[in-house]
Give the backbone structure.
Amino acid sequence: MKFWKYHVNGNDFILLESSHKMHPSQITMLCDRHKGIGADGILCVAEEEQVRYLHYNADGSVANMCGNGIRCVAHHICTKRHLSKIEITILGQTYTVALNDHIATLYAPIPKVLEENRYNSGVNHLIVSAYTQSEDDNVDVVKYRDDTHFEMTTYELGVGETLSCGTGMIAAFYHGVRNQLLSHMAIGTSKGGYNLLYLNDDSICLSSCVHEVYSGNWNERK
């Protein structure tokens, strides 16, 4: 089975050109960092008239959206097709991603405000200043340094602590803008690297480098 290994700021993925649904045991095997390839999740890409993909977390669960994963899919397809922009659909929702060399920019809708510090930016995020456990939300521990810089650590459902989270960056950025902690352009830093974010009238642009680390063949085993 052919695969490609990608990451955005250390948030890493196994990309497969496949439309077949995967069994949770197969997903956890591939994502195992000692006995498998190792990753935070798997991206199953179907190149139809419109590019569609499914995103699996490392524990086998399905993710509704991933700001880093979708940019890896865009890099893979745009590089192969020599495109600078592409539309990608995940679970019925379509997103636009632009590629300039290795810098991928996701044009994401404005997050839905669920509560004062809870947002849905494709998936639910809880913005806090100190870690608190949640069974329903990804938790983002955020420090706003000044009006153009913030730092964030994300604890994702189905994964745990990650080096970077794209939807978390979007939620934390929008929370900062809404509460006048950030300007309409800012840099968000995580343990794995940084993103540039910009608020338009109807979208948030999220930009960072995408890295294709290597490709190979997985020897399927029972």
In short: The chain is about 15% helix and 50% strand. The mean pLDDT is 95. The longest strand covers residues 138-146. The chain has two domains: 2-101+210-217, 108-208.
